[in-house]
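Structure (tokenized):
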């Protein structure tokens, strides 16, 4: 299931059935192009309005029939390539790049230790009997490294038919190391040994991974969020966007369904926000408790427990 689903859910939550004027482009658009050609469905595309294709906003400079001269990458968005039949959204109330930014902000927020959400990642290395310090290689595949909040467990492959993984008890994580010695900047120091040539496996807690704004077709699982918690980013993003832009019932540029004054009393909008906030808080507590049950807090192993292997005398 793609990230686009989250974007659509947030927009539906905020628009409450309000339908924006839509069109589609008829051909591919390159990053450097200054024109787009549309089918002509939307009569509201005129000079001075803003249109959106995927996550890119464009300012309309001139309209000649179905050919639109545009200023690319408007309003903090990023110019990108688009393909025929991509949807053109006219004067979007909640631009996609802002929705995605709010989703990423919420993923970072719920990854805070105060909120208790995280992902468990794994890295391995081969044990060398003559080496105490190892680079904690958390390569994310794009030239960077996954952040390490804390190490959950360190085990090593034993010798024999049992193929069990005994735990390495005494170790220490050192951060901000020289990258010429430890490329990731994180060093794992082992004070207990393993079998030389065998694999050491490290489980570590990492913040949730932001979604890629340039490709909304990527699967939501790449964030590391459990499937049971997929509603959390949409709730958080909707809350954030409600604080900066009116939701549907407050729109001034379109006439909504007539309402009697007593049907929308003072504070109704604030009440909607509080209901959303209460729901998010309840769901966040449930999901963080689920993670805590799966990965219960352990007594942290560190250099306070040192073996004789590296010449440390008992305290």
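Design, position by position:
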């Amino acid at each position: 299931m793609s990230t686009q689903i989250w974007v659509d859910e947030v927009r539906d939550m905020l628009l409450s059935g309000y339908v924006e004027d839509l069109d589609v482009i008829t051909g591919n658009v390159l990053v450097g192009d200054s024109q787009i050609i549309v089918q002509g469905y939307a009569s509201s595309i005129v000079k001075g309005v803003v249109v959106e294709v995927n996550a890119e906003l464009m300012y309309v400079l001139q309209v000649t029939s179905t050919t639109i001269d545009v200023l690319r990458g408007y309003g903090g968005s990023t110019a990108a390539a688009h393909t025929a039949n991509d949807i053109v959204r006219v004067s979007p109330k909640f631009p996609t790049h802002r929705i995605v930014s709010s989703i990423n902000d919420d993923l970072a927020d719920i990854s805070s230790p105060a909120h208790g959400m995280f992902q468990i990642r794994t890295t391995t290395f081969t044990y060398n009997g003559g080496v105490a310090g190892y680079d904690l290689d958390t390569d994310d595949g794009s030239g960077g490294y996954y952040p390490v909040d804390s190490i959950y467990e360190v085990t090593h492959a034993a010798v024999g038919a049992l193929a069990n993984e005994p735990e390495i008890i005494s170790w220490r994580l050192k951060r901000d190391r020289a990258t010429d010695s430890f490329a990731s900047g994180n060093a794992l120091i082992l004070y207990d040994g393993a079998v030389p040539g065998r694999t050491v496996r490290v489980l570590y807690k990492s913040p949730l991974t932001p979604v890629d704004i340039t490709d909304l077709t990527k699967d939501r699982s790449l964030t590391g969020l459990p499937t049971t918690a997929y509603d959390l980013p949409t709730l958080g993003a909707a809350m954030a966007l409600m604080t900066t832009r009116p939701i549907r019932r407050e729109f001034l540029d379109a006439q909504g369904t007539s309402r009697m004054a007593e049907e929308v009393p003072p504070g109704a909008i604030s009440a909607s926000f509080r209901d959303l906030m209460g729901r998010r808080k309840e769901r966040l507590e449930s999901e963080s408790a689920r993670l805590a049950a799966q990965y219960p807090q352990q007594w942290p192993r560190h250099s306070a427990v040192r073996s004789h292997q590296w010449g440390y005398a008992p305290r």
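Reviewer-requested clarification: Residues 250-256, 307-315 have pLDDT under 50 and may be disordered. Residues 135 and 182 are 5 Å apart (CA to CA).
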